[in-house]
Amino acid sequence: MSAPRLKHFGWGRQGEGLSAEEEAFVLARAEARFGTKLQVSATAPPLDEIKLAAPRVTAPASLSFATSDHYDRAAHTFGKSYPDLARGLARDYASAPDVVAYPRNEAEVAAVLDWAGGADATVTPFGGGSSVCGGVEPKRNGHKGAATIDLRAMGKVKEVDKTSRAALIEGGTYGPALEAQLKPHGLTLRHFPQSFEYSTLGGWIATRGGGHFATLYTHIDDFVESLRVVTPKGIMESRRLPGSGAGPSPDRMMIGSEGIFGIITQAWMRLQARPAFRGGGAVRFKDFFTAARAVRAISQAGLYPSNCRILDSAEAYNTGAADGSVAIMVLAFESADHDVTPWMKRALECCADHGGTPEAAGAGAHREGAAGVWRNAFIRMPYAMERLILRGVINDTFETSITWDRFEQFHDAIHAATGNAILEATGRKGQVTCRFTHVYPDGPAPYFTFHALGEPGNLGAQWHAIKSAALDAVIESGGTVTHHHAVGRDHRPWYDRQRPPLFAEALRAAKKALDPQGLLNPGVLIDPA
Amino acid sequence: MSAPRLKHFGWGRQGEGLSAEEEAFVLARAEARFGTKLQVSATAPPLDEIKLAAPRVTAPASLSFATSDHYDRAAHTFGKSYPDLARGLARDYASAPDVVAYPRNEAEVAAVLDWAGGADATVTPFGGGSSVCGGVEPKRNGHKGAATIDLRAMGKVKEVDKTSRAALIEGGTYGPALEAQLKPHGLTLRHFPQSFEYSTLGGWIATRGGGHFATLYTHIDDFVESLRVVTPKGIMESRRLPGSGAGPSPDRMMIGSEGIFGIITQAWMRLQARPAFRGGGAVRFKDFFTAARAVRAISQAGLYPSNCRILDSAEAYNTGAADGSVAIMVLAFESADHDVTPWMKRALECCADHGGTPEAAGAGAHREGAAGVWRNAFIRMPYAMERLILRGVINDTFETSITWDRFEQFHDAIHAATGNAILEATGRKGQVTCRFTHVYPDGPAPYFTFHALGEPGNLGAQWHAIKSAALDAVIESGGTVTHHHAVGRDHRPWYDRQRPPLFAEALRAAKKALDPQGLLNPGVLIDPA
To answer: Is residue A386 part of a domain?
Structure first.
């Protein structure tokens, strides 16, 4: 690859980050929030300051695509969560894998699994490495060593079926490469998570990633036509079918399995024609709950906008989309087939029923005005965290879902629990904001962001206290521990309270059947039997 | 229940069946098809001609809702498939359960499972009994006895959440009772399979039933918000969530599990507001493949019609919807929220692009003209089979799905294989027709009907030869053994060729964890480990 290599600390590739202007904007907002100047108290760890234990296992020469080089091990130690950054600042890379393999095909994936079985090494699948829940951090869990399989060398669109609008795509394909290979065919997957540039198809499927569409097709799940997975017991492949009623779906067992059963090497994915018609814009509401009622009306109307996200007034202010006095809805329709004006018109009527005032509307509006400002801030967000943490700022997000009947009470309980936890953990008031990322006829997916000013050297522990209180409230109030970020290891304690105990038994039994040595991602989702 | 009891042979309740006029129509079509008068050669079995073995196990007095009465055992021997009828004619009720239990609540369901575990009796869940694939026929499989749990006494809508448009509904609720209880709330599940009157919510979920909507929401799967299932190891209940990314979906493991893991006692279901706006009608096409290309255009346009089904010319003729020279599309849009004219207009443009000519259009058109004629024939179809078999007619249906790129070749291969098998098995030409029941952006769900004139006394074997050849062709050509009829025991040999072998291992392991004695529906989907 000719692009600069991925950072071993922080988001993206070496040399990438916030511009001076973006950093000044983010910093000014943070200083205003905490009412104090922020001083740099830590530095990102240079590669040569990171000390790694000698590898406990090494790959044989036959695995020529595997390495135990210092950079590769360091760069595969963490995902991109706040506690990952906190440990990075402390130069704590103790979880580094012993071996990193970059297989170029399925046979090489299988060869790594075979070797790992003999060498007693755990195996961690790694896509773009953007996990924010401890999903790609290697663990030995009593085994001798730990290997990471990085799928980046399996990044091809292998076959395109224009008639059925589907393509066979390798699991290690990064978002931009995937879209670039589909574009000449006039097709698109339209899966644009915030992590789009640094995440892969296999990762999206393994974690049930949430994407572009705010309604209807929200999760990658619905776009999977068939899967091919390499497990320690062999290859599992499902048929290409538009729909089936033949027993429980084999794909649905693999979707969301977070690497505990096997490695997704390729998938037939359902695609879209590239949109040619667009309508959209921002709509202002007096407050978040009023905006939410308009969202409910739209989501129950069968209009299926591509975007129908709302920001509370504080979040709209923080991202520069509004002045802090109003909630904002970002509304958009798109189609490759027909003018969307009747759809947009009816959705704006639903907004007007709840006092919503359009800021601007028309083709192209989704990239302009409040909607466009928010969109840019959203995409650059991950770069801000690695700069703010150097100044002692704790900020993170978590996402959930709840039915409409419980939403307002749910929102208030979580908002209060998180705000109180910030005060208790840091001795200083912070901020909690909320937006909707996806919406369903039966309820929204609220996405919370929190900001706190912590104590350098103690940031990880303070973060943990806040996040734990927030997730306690989510689980106690009936929500899901994650709507699209996944479970990984960080969310396990709350997932264990959410997941039916007998389903854990079934998962454990299935894992034992497919991964008898328990080498794949031990501790993710379930513990061994 | 004050309604007449269910028949022990044939469709529906005692006293129900084709009118003389309907029977004459069906008979005339059949006689024209085979070019011969049809003579009655068999009689339906009166209850007192059915001999049952003495029960191998009986329920204790504490299970006051269980019985070993002759009628109850006979009426729970079969589903409603053609071979079930053929064995009925032969008075072969050897599969009758020893005990039929009608639990009134979850505790009574659990009590039956507990008793069956001690008595070494297999357990067959029974909803409306409309299985057409051997899904409700009791088997002992080496165990001492066989019990059927009929859920009909658990038929309540327990709670309605109008805000989220969802309801908590018991698993044994029949279609009409379900809709009747939702109607006062202005809500509807809109799940209307052909078996609607004689099937239950739990059955729809256990078999991944296909319903009202021809596009978008085709399977019951998407309407399940949460499930409660009684397994031999205890109760498994999922959270009510509009969407979640927390591990593989627990519900998706139960949906389509056909009773092998447990008994679905209740579910929170996503509902619709009752439609207030409608548009639709029939569209004529010169042939089936041309109509199919119009269906593909509509299904890829993002319009989501509630109906978008096509009939080939022979099927349109057989049901009285057309004269045999044209293929027919039944097209409809419905909405509780908005006028659907722009949607219908664009869909008709897609039809016109392929030479489609609307027969009639407008509100109410879905119940009139060719569309209405077909709809009535469709609903009355199951009553015809039990009359025709008495005259030696073999007729049955099977349904599958395939991606668009392979559809035409697939259709021709199956059509030819089935037609040839009819000739080979019966020595006489029969007929094979096709329609689409559901369509997806990546492919259709073709539904085949075949008609043959068989030899009285040998009908079951002839049917088996024809159906086997048809399903061989389906599996060899890349389709699914079932799109929405389920697998049961009849489709097992082909399901075994379709299902990934490692997924079978995972299912077997999960079953062992939830049903260690292997008592629930043995032989359905998988064999024991």
So the answer is: yes
Render A1-39 in DSSP notation, one character per residue: --SPPBPSSSSSBTT----HHHHHHHHHHHHHHHTS---
State how far residue B525 is from chain A, nearest Cα, in angstroms: 7
pLDDT band at A1 (very low <50, low <70, confident <90, very high): very low
> Which residue has better confidence, B434 or B369?
B434
The predicted pLDDT at position B363 comes to 43
Closest chain B C-alpha to A514 CA, distance in angstroms: 7
Asked if B163 lies within 8 A of A514 by C-beta distance, the reply is no
Handedness of CA A501, A504, A508, A510 (dihedral sign): positive
Residues in B touching A215 (Cβ below 8 Å):
none
Q: What pTM was computed for the model?
A: 0.97
Q: How does DSSP assign A352-406, residue by residue?
A: HHTT-EES--STTGGGSHHHHHHHHHHHHHHHHHHHHGGGTEEEEEEE----GGG
The mean pLDDT of chain B is 95
The CATH number of the domain holding residue A265 is 3.30.465.10
Task: Find which of A503, A505, A526 to mutate to test the B interface (most B CBs within 10 Å of its CB).
Answer: A503
**Which domain range does residue B132 map to?**
20-153
Same-domain pairing of A521 and A429: no
Least confident of B108-122, B268-282, B375-389: B375-389
Are residues A480 and B512, on separate chains, in Cβ contact within 8 Å? no
Asked whether the CA dihedral A99, A102, A106, A111 is positive or negative, the reply is negative
3 state DSSP class of A244 = coil
Q: Domain of A454: which CATH number?
A: 3.40.462.40
Q: How far, in Å, CA of B494 to CA of B318, rounded?
A: 29
With 50 as the cut, is the pLDDT of residue A363 above it? no
Q: Is residue B146 part of a domain?
A: yes
pLDDT for residue B375 is more than 80 = no
Mean pLDDT over B440-444 rounds to 98
CB B524 within 8 A of CB B504: no
Both A234 and A290 in a single domain? no
CA distance B292 to A414: 50
Residue B42: give its domain's CATH number.
3.30.43.10
Name the residue of chain B whose CA is nearest to A211's CA: B245
Same structural domain for residues A267 and A305? Answer: no
**What ipTM did this prediction achieve?**
0.96
Specify if B122 maps to a domain.
yes
On whether residue B413 sits in a domain, the answer given is no
Residue B43 forms contact with A (CB below 8 Å): no
If one counts the domains in chain B, the total is 1
B500·A250 Cβ contact <8 A: yes
- Does A90 lie at the interface with B, CB-CB under 8 angstroms? no
Query: Same domain, yes or no, for A264 and A383?
Result: no
CB-based contact A273 B300, cutoff 8 Å? yes
Average pLDDT over residues A12-34: 92
